[in-house]
Request: fold
Amino acid sequence: MFKQLVNECIVTLHINIDGPVLVKSGLAQVSGPDMAWVRVFRNGREEVYLPGSSLKGVLRSHAERIARTLNNRSACDPFADSSCGRIFDKRKPKTSEAYRDSCLICKLFGSTGFAGRLATTDAYALGAPPEPVQRDGVGIDRFSGGAAHGAKFELEVITEGTFATTLHLRNFELWQLALLGFVLQDLSDGLIRIGMGKSRGLGQVCGEVKQVRIDFLGLKAPQVVNGQLSLRGVGSLFDDAHEYGIVSPDEVSIPYSGELRSNGVRTTAIFPGLTFPWAAIGDRWVQRAVSFTDPLAHERQGGRQ
Ligand SMILES: [Zn+2]
Reply:
């Protein structure tokens, strides 16, 4: 996105399995169950894991739902001809233009026009990795779309375990951090399912935020005054914000009782457990979504014909 990194939020997240879950391998299986868990070779053995790309996809579709609730135009349909990515494929804009003209969800998660701000690492099991068990999946075609009617089907599920991952949000605007907060809240409330068979009761998980860390890089890092930290979005840290259509200035005062660590280049605030004050920034997202007007409205109509 930008050549320089000016701020970053790193969320340490645990994902607790809360019922049968299947995150399928994308590879064709030579033997074993028809629907096998995705595995990785790690610590000298094969174990199940949650690929970062699948997690990102799940968080993205949920963010789309949240966005459309507030303003139907604020999220494009990433699979349609009218998507930001398809339009940029034709137009080949500069990165700053692509960012400026994208829908709010592409601004956060990216499109073919540019890489997104949010990155998710692969999630590995904490402690001993759960062992998948086989379940009979007759009728699974209704959610897989791939199996023959009435065929007997084996699928692998895990029913317990905790996976640890980190989310990295780089060069964020405050509304993006706030939207991530709403997504994490819904994940904690068990409202986001992962993997296959969501409509059939599979995929129940519960997120648990273990820590939120905010880094500021460079000389515009904020200080703590009277227990308040001025949280700065990229619009208050980056000189060419207007070229990208970034909200500027972008700053909000939040309570912070911890120590600020700084080595003169990187300044870090750490919020352990659930102490990050999401409520103090929530309005940034709501206002941005409600007031969003779509710069690509005309081109999207062309794409639909
Ligand atoms: Zn879009």
In short: The helical segments are 52-70, 84-91, 95-101, 104-109, 141-144, 174-188, 282-290, 297-304. The radius of gyration is 21 Å. Residues 76, 83-84, 102-103, 105-106, 111 surround zinc ion (CB under 6 Å). The first helix runs from residue 52 to 70.
